[in-house]
Design a protein that fits this description.
Layout lengths: L1 E10 L8 H21 L6 E2 L5 H9 L4 H9 L3 E2 L14 H17 L7 E3 L9 H7 L4 E4 L5 H4 L4 E5 L5 E6 L14 H17 L6 E9 L7 H10 L4 E5 L9
Bound molecules: zinc ion (ZN).
The site of zinc ion (ZN) has 3 residues, from loops.
């Protein structure tokens, strides 16, 4: 039986979607709410906050009084952060800039308790071909990304070794359905039949040599879905031929 790993997350369009004031208004609401939920919900194992330290930095400029609360949640791996400083479009900038981006991001996140050791780039529009080499330089062995690879190039498998021109490689996973296929996760028969099972079938075909399916469940600036633990329990009770697991603190490699 395939395991479906549901990673609850917010994606944050920090640089282009809004002006700074709008972005910070949303960020203040979102992260404050997230902290309140995770501090009080033992059944909510973890949340991923888009792998970029800039939004933590920005938040604490506005709400410095929440620093210790945030630090505790990051230290306890209730909130996953890092390794990037910002989700830069890696095709547009110099390699040196990408290296510094990771260096700043990892430093800031480690000071807050941990930096996620995954080269996570969910929404950029192509991948710099030296990224595997750059990741390895930071002891990051895994990459997760959406765009920049044609379906034919995947050769029927979303999990592959991704090599830089210098021959250095990392393990990679292509989030074929994007970063939000599980955004509206629900246990209604209508959702299961109409959305969930077709998505899982698609992922299953492209993960034949692996028992685990990754189902990112979040979206742009979304608030934490507080009902996910209940929905996941209900999905498991329906015996759909999959084991649904809300991503917890033990299944991701961290620094
Ligand atoms: Zn985006």
């Amino acid at each position: 039986m395939k395991k479906v790993h549901i990673v609850s997350h917010s994606h944050w369009d920090r640089e282009w979607y809004f002006n700074l004031e709008d972005s910070n208004l949303l960020l203040g609401e979102n992260l404050t709410y997230l902290m309140g939920v995770l501090e009080n919900r033992e059944d909510y194992p973890s949340y991923s906050f888009d792998a970029q330290a800039s939004i933590i930095d920005e938040y604490l400029n506005i709400y410095p009084e929440n620093k210790n609360r945030l630090k505790k949640l990051i230290t306890n791996k209730k909130i996953f952060v890092g390794p990037w400083y910002t989700q830069a479009d890696s095709l547009l900038i110099n390699k040196e800039s990408l290296i510094r981006n990771l260096q700043y991001g990892i430093d800031i996140c480690e000071n807050f308790g941990h930096s996620m050791s995954v080269g996570y780039l969910p929404d950029i529009f192509g991948q710099n071909q030296y990224l595997p080499s750059i990741f390895k330089g930071f002891e990051i062995d895994d990459a997760i990304f959406q765009r920049g690879v044609y379906t034919d190039q995947l050769k029927g498998n979303l999990n592959f070794k991704w090599s830089s021109p210098d021959g250095i490689e990392v393990r990679a996973n292509n989030i074929y359905l994007g970063y939000g296929p599980g955004k509206f996760l629900d246990s209604s028969d209508e959702y299961i039949e109409g959305k969930l099972l077709p998505m899982l079938k698609k992922l299953e075909i492209l993960n034949t040599d692996c028992e685990d399916l990754l189902l990112p469940a979040g979206g742009d600036q979304v608030l934490i879905r507080e009902y996910f633990p209940k929905v996941i329990e209900e999905l498991n009770q329906k015996n759909l031929g999959y084991e649904f697991i809300l991503h917890g603190r033990t299944s991701l490699k961290i620094r």
